[in-house]
Predict the 3D structure of the following.
Amino acid sequence: MMTFPAAWRAVARAIPLVAIGAALLAPVRASAQHAIDLPLGATLPDLKVETLDGQPASLGQYIGKGPLLIEVWATWCANCEELAPKILAAKKKYEGKVRFIGLAVSFNQSPNRVKLHMEKHGFDVETFYDRKGEADVVYGVKATSTVIVVDKSGKIVYAGAGGDQDIDSAVRKAM
């Protein structure tokens, strides 16, 4: 039988684990300066990724060629699902003026799963696959649902995370 002091110590040891678990499950609400490691105003670096068919690709081909929105997302991300209609509405509104890129992370999903999810949900954004976690390494992305917007010169004008982002306002900052 466990005595009160021993039971209390067991509870005290479990508290940090519960706090960590709660933090991992909580919705992401990162501010612009905390969504990525790169500061606003910095030039967005190139990122080596793959097409959903497994071919090498580079986001560098889009940087500095006009306004660009990149969303780091996953099929299992609730915040990403909340953002999807906002991104699709902005894509429709700014068609031909802003390029919209999806960057699917490789954690717990495959390119095929990403394709099926996009078809099922009508998410018709040009999408790449980040098999090696380069968005985390190069951009310092903290979570799925991270949106990065750059202006025509390739400078970061917005970075945020979470499902409640004002995508239209973020895109207007790049215009």
Summary: DSSP finds six helices and seven strands in the chain.
